[in-house]
Amino acid sequence: MTRRNSNRLMLAGFVLFGAFIAAFVAFPRLTVLVGATLGQFNDPGPPKLIKSIGCVDRCNAASIATLVQTRFPVGTKLTDMETELGKDGFTPEDPMPAKCTPKDKMVPGKWAVACPAWDPHWNPANRAAYRWSKTVGCGNNILIDWSADKAGRLTHVEGSYYYACV
Q1: What is the DSSP letter of 18?
Q2: 0.90 cut: is pTM over it?
């Protein structure tokens, strides 16, 4: 490539970047919508874990809860579950507080994670999430919460699902 062609290519890149910035300033909602639409081409689809129940777009929350408890029964090595979920694309929830808050101590307007009924000392870091979407602005969400003993074995595991739109 000649120096002249590389200068033209660089100038074209600057012009496109400038046009994007100008469009964002002039039409922020449209720019976000276009960006979200383009992001749909990167959608990973549902995780392998739930493909056995035929969940592609909208899922049955009870089926996911049962599947998670069957796949990772109490006594499963925590590292085995974390490895499998990581390979399937599940990621830790961020940011999470250092501890959960008992439901009777929740303060309206203050962000906190309520302690589940099954473990009043649950660590909110014990949550993995997977999200995917086939539509702009809406998405499928799977959360897996657990508790483990000091030996690194599951003492409780729950799977939940929700579909949300912004």
Answers
A1: H
A2: no
